[in-house]
Amino acid sequence: MGILEKIDKENAPKHIAIIMDGNGRWAQRQGQDRLFGHNFGVESVREALKAAQELGTKFLTLYAFSTENWNRPQEEVNGIMNLLVDTISNEVDELHKSNVIIATIGDLAGLPERCQEEMTAACERTKNNTGIQLNLALNYSAKWELVNATKSIARRVMEGKMKIEDIDNKAIEQELSTNSIPDPELLIRTSGEHRISNFLLWQIAYSEFHFTDVLWPDFKKDDLFKAVLDYQSRERRFGLVSAQLENKA
Length: 249
Ligand code: IPE
Ligand code: IPE
Ligand code: MG
Prior knowledge:
Layout: H1 3-6, E1 15-19, H2 23-28, H3 34-55, E2 59-66, H4 74-97, E3 101-105, H5 113-126, E4 133-140, H6 142-158, H7 169-175, E5 186-189, E6 208-211, H8 221-232, H9 242-248
Parallel strand pairs: 1-2, 1-5, 2-4, 3-4, 5-6
Helix pairs in contact: 3-4, 3-8, 4-5, 6-7
């Protein structure tokens, strides 16, 4: 029996988030430069997307470029930006055909103009599709997002449009770039690192974490299925005790 058959599809996560890590190390292990690894990482994005589609996942959020990644050597940053432009323009037809909605989270205005144009066009073209939503986190960091949310709420209070007493979880969630998306049930990080690196902070309050040593360019459909199986072996208690969950079932 394949891994996919072992998964209870009814209870598969509706939103999976992935920190795609390890491209540089993968390339360096083969004596290649880091960009070689980023290029190969694109194939793993295809694999993860296909696997998520097979599972009926509604949202797949991929951490593609963090606010901190600007501090890498200029050559690598330029290479990643070019790769983004090339990948989106090459793949958009196929993605559109398979009913994918392309969306972004992060500060798009901070990206090179070509990149902004390609991304905006791809989002616009696919926005009425009804399949999986692929959220690309570009120039994203959770702290950036939370600072923005705080500013926006403060502004509304100052302008008398909102009362301090009305600030609740929902009000904050509405200000996040994920405002129309449910929180991820499952967060995957590849490459053996066990950290969040400023990815979704608010949204992962109750996510299950799956860490794998697989480097991102080696990530295949089965690796995503393994993560989902691992997720399905967990008991999500949300602060309750086991017996309470059994009563609910
Ligand atoms: C992840 O791979 C891709 C980005 C952060 C853009 P890395 O480039 O971080 O690869 P490692 O972690 O150095 O191996
Ligand atoms: C996180 O990976 C960002 C992305 C995957 C885009 P990094 O490689 O930048 O994270 P650190 O530096 O290891 O924490
Ligand atoms: Mg890394």
